[in-house]
Amino acid sequence: MKINRPRNLFSIFSAAVIVTGAYWGQRILRYSGDIPVTPQTILYMSSHQTWLQNLLNEGGWNFFIQTSGKIQCLTHGGFFSQPTWSPDRKWIAFSSYEDILTKGNRNYNQFFIWRMKTDGAEQRRISPVWLSSQNPVWSPDGQWILFSAHAFNEALYNVSDSLAHAYPDSFRTRSLFLMRPDGSQAKRLGIINDCLRFTLNPSWAPDSRRAVFIGHGCNSSSIQIVDVITEVVYSVLTGEQWQPLAQPNWSPVKDAIAFVSRGNIFSLDLASGMPKQLTSDGQCREPSWSVDGKHLYFVRASQDDGQIWRQDLITGETRQTTFNKGHNVFPVAH
To answer: Which domains does the chain have, with CATH numbers?
Structure first.
């Protein structure tokens, strides 16, 4: 039996769960009351379908919170990606894949950054309409969101924002941008050069002034650090033996950066400049530090499955933390 889904749902399934219609036809599963968040809580994205999604015949990628052995689904339907927590754990910023209308009245898909409360309420798009935006990360002081983006092609899109024309080379590169958590004061960091034509995967330092990112250009990738105030950039790791480099993540408590190289997780101590290998099976990605910096969460993936694991950085003990079917990716622990 096929169930015809209404575009907007306002049905109350229980006293605890409310499903509401959201912008762009997406639906948010909202839990009444605060969701408990502890130092062991992780936020992640999953292709796993809940009973409600199966009932409505809706899939997609959605956000889940796992805490104290309990799992709660935050979103319902659509394509949600790359979540980041605000420092007080009250808000989540994320990328959302959406249809937009081109000049020729043709639909085209792009990524935009959205913000919502941890219970799924007050969701809205905050990134500029002229940018295809991904990789949002909230600064530790809560003042900024850093993200990677490129501008739309002017010949294809209705670009009228004055900022779009202020950065004409953004149509040919992927750059780092800053904006306030409400979407205001968006600006590009001026760090474009021939060897940094594409900048991806930013992550903040604990001081909310520096950030690490992956720079692509000159036929290689590198781990770079930028001072977001002075816009001074310097490389901390490159070389053929590390290619390709990906997904750096700065420890919340010290000058150490976890990163991915050739399918394995490494930790780079900035003082010594010496990387330490943490995994060796070639199937790992997306490292994320725990709040206290003593554990590292990461994804161990195969073609048909992806699960989140946690490694004790003192003992080296590694344990699986997610077990639901599907691909569980983009863990965020701090």
So the answer is: 192-334 (2.120.10.30)
